[in-house]
Structures are given as structure tokens and as C-alpha cells.
Amino acid sequence: MLNIQKYTFFNPSPNFREMMILKLISQENDISQETMAKKVGVVPSMINKYLKDFEENGNIIKSGENKRNMSYELTEAGKKRLQFLTLSFVDEVSELYTETKDSFKKVFQTLKKDNLQDILLYGAGVVGGIVLKVLKDENINIIGFLDDSSLKQED
């Protein structure tokens, strides 16, 4: 399961949260609302609202006498909804990846045109890390980073 806390830039949408909650239920029927809330990164009352909506829409069946022994089961409609949300998510991530890769295309073309295979990158921050990952896939050797920040410099 995707650890959303790792990605601080992207703000999860209701569809993303819905997908995550349905996925958690599909993996563990007796998961608590508190555990779901922690894994999704929301308060338990929001999980409760999603669960009520899921039940009203026929996506889950709840069973149990109280909160302490509650379990949830995805219905066929819930499984189809999870599949739809997952495919939509993968489609959007794929599109984002393609757009990002295309934005680096000019850089790759310049490096290859000039037959540069061993390069230094300026900027050892987040962007430099991304460029490092992308350029490794392009058979370009990053021999090091240059940065003005002494905090990012090593011997």
C-alpha cells in the first residue's frame, strides 16, 4: 500500500482516500477505524463518514455488535469500485510520469547531442535527486553534485 505520509507535496483527494480505505478493507476485514485513519492520514471521524457512505452505496457490508468487534466486507460493487479507482489512479500517475519525463527530454537531447556521458549536477537538493534518478535511466553517469549549501557538501 502506498504510504501517503511519504509524499508531502501531493494533497490526497476524496477519490484517493476512498481507494485507500477500500484497499485496506480488502486486505483486512477486521481493521479498526483508528488504524484506517492512521494509514490514510485522516481523523477517525472522517473514516466513519466514508464507511457510512460505502454502506449506503452498497460498497461494503458491516458486521459486529460494537466498534470493538466490527468487521467490513467489500461487496461486488465495492470490489468494482476499488478496481475502478485503482485503474484511474494508475492512469493519472502514468500520465504524470510521462509529462515529467517529457519535460526532461530536451535536457537528454542536449547531453546526447554533445556526447556528454559523465556529468556533474548543480544542486544537491530535491530536484537534483530527481534528475539523478532520471539520468541513470538514460545511461548518463553522474560523477557528483555541486551545491552552494555547506549542509549539502561532503568531503
Provide structural commentary.
The protein is of the alpha+beta class. It has 2 domains: 4-101, Arc Repressor Mutant, subunit A (Orthogonal Bundle); 104-152, no CATH class. The protein contains 6 helices and 4 strands; from the N terminus they run αααββααβαβ. The strands form 2 sheets. The protein has a two-stranded antiparallel ribbon. The chain has a two-stranded parallel sheet with strand order 3-4. Strand 3, helix 6 and strand 4 (141-146) form a beta-alpha-beta unit. Helix 1 (14-27) packs across helix 4 and helix 2 packs across helix 3 (44-56). The radius of gyration is 22 Å and the shape is elongated. 10% of the residues are buried.
**Number of structurally distinct domains:** 2
Spans with pLDDT under 50 lasting ≥5 residues? none
Indicate the CATH topology of the largest domain: Arc Repressor Mutant, subunit A
Strand order of the largest sheet: 1-2
**Mean pLDDT, nearest integer?**
84
Strand content: 5-15%
Shape: elongated
- Quantity of strands, as a count: 4
Structural class: alpha+beta
Order of helices and strands: HHHEEHHEHE
Q: In the CATH hierarchy, what is the superfamily of the largest domain?
A: Winged helix-like DNA-binding domain superfamily/Winged helix DNA-binding domain
CATH architecture of the largest domain: Orthogonal Bundle
Largest sheet: 2 strands, antiparallel
What's the tally of helices?
6
What is the radius of gyration?
22 Å
Helix content: 40-55%
Q: State the separation between the terminal residues, measured CA to CA.
A: 38 Å
Main CATH class of the largest domain: Mainly Alpha
